Amino acid sequence: MRFNKRRNESITDMDPSLSALSGSSWLDRLSSERSRLLIHAAKTTLAATIAWFVAQALGLNDGYWAVITVIIVLQSYVGSTVTASRDRAIGTLIGAVFGFTFSLYSVQPWNFLLALTASTVVCVLLGLKGSTRLAGVTVVIIMIQQKHAMDYTIALHRVIEVLLGIAIALAVSTLVLPERARIRLRESLAEEFLQLGAFFEAVLKGFSGTPDERLNDLRTQCDNRRRTNNQLMDTARNEPSGGVGILEASGMLSQFARSLRDALAALELSVRNSNNDQFAQQLEPELGKLATDIHATFHFVAGCIHRWKFNVPLGKLSLAADIAALEQKMDSLRHMGTSFSQEEVLRAYAVQLHLKQIARILRTVRTETGRTLEERKMQEESA
Questions:
Q1: For residue 3, what is the DSSP state?
Q2: Rounded CA gap, 308 and 291, in Å?
Q3: What is the three-class DSSP state of 176?
């Protein structure tokens, strides 16, 4: 199996914007990540400073809890900040209620235990996994302070300070150089399709040829990217809407990427131990052309995601015609089946089926995503 090098070199010519994704060096990506971290550090410093001065202006003696809250809940993405803020607010409220209530009955070791147990059970029963630890911390802090003053204002001030820190963190995260997870998700999905394309090329390199030495590394990269995108998707769900159907379309693209990864895993199993297959050599150049066009389509779809435009013609790429040509070639070789081992012939047919599945998914990605965005746009306009 040999890819047409000339066709591969023209992939970025179809979409020059892809050079920012596929051609960027590790140094460029490191620089981008470093800039993101510096911006986050600057935003955290700004929010913490605002929290401190506001707490002092309001006369909160323990205003440093507002600052601590800012540092804890302010995340790189707006959606992550919303999630952390929600968990901390709920955990603080639950912890404050149980901490103050149980402290009224004297502070004894068993009282700590009962308060911690009660707050934890409530969080678990309400499905508030992220608030459990924060509720426990609040219980301990309030009950320790209650040793010196049996006053409800201790719990009240604790809640006010935390809510103040949360409000400031959310304001800074949303208004000052906001980093949207859904925007990063789009970029990461485009990168995932590029990585899947590279993995596809490496898998097929081992079909009637020498296995690609990068195969294991590429597989790991694809799996790591999948986990990253799943996390970004969860974060994006907590962000304010960023446009018509963006989150739904991103979810569809994520599912398509998962389906492609599964199809590539099946293809990898099919080509195993096929480096000496002679029957596969008889399928050239049709097999090579289909493989090359599928690889180019991975890049084409990545470009559509990068630009967020899906109603773009495929140009010279015609996967349907490539599949038809390969099927015709295999039909013409059917009479030669007895000249090769049954294992080789079955392996070639299995590879053909997996290539057809991958091509079908790639065609569907563009059409279905474009249709979904168009439908959501029409629904919004009609509303």
A1: -
A2: 25
A3: coil
C-alpha of 60 from chain center: 40
CA atoms in the 13 A half-sphere facing the CB of 75? 18
Average pLDDT of the chain is 84
Question: Are residues 152 and 82 in contact, defined by beta-carbon separation less than 8 angstroms?
Answer: no
Alpha-carbon torsion angle 299, 305, 307, 313, nearest 10: 60
* Intra-chain end-to-end CA distance of the chain, in Å: 53
* CA atoms of 310 and 300, how far apart (whole Å): 10
Question: Is the separation of the CB atoms in 4 and 35 below 8 Å?
Answer: no
Residue with tokens 């569907």: 364
Cβ neighbours, 10 Å, residue 277: 23
| Phi (first) and psi of residue 272, to 5 degrees | -65, 135
Minimum mean pLDDT range among 47-61, 149-163, 197-211 = 149-163
| pLDDT at 110 (0 to 100) | 78
Assign 3-class secondary structure to 334-364.
HHHHHHCCHHHHHHHHHHHHHHHHHHHHHHH
Q: What is the DSSP string of 20-51?
A: HHHS--HHHHHHHHHHHHHHHHHHHHHHHHHH
Between CA 197 and CA 246 the distance in angstroms is 24
Ramachandran assignment for 208, one of left (phi > 0), alpha (psi -120 to 50 degrees), beta (any other): left
Cα 10 to Cα 14: distance, rounded to the nearest angstrom: 7
CA distance 91 to 95: 6
**293-340, pLDDT tens digit by residue?**
999 999 999 999 999 998 888 778 889 899 999 999 888 888 775 678
> DSSP per residue over 253-322, as a string?
HHHHHHHHHHHHHHHHHHTTT-TT-STGGGGTTHHHHHHHHHHHHHHHHHHHHHHT------TT--HHHH
Cβ pair 161, 93 in contact under 8 A: no
| Nearest C-alpha neighbor of 301 from the set 14, 8, 4, 5 | 14
Q: Of 94, 48, 54, which Cα lies nearest the Cα of 73?
A: 48
Domains of the chain, start order: 38-175 (no CATH), 181-382 (1.20.58)
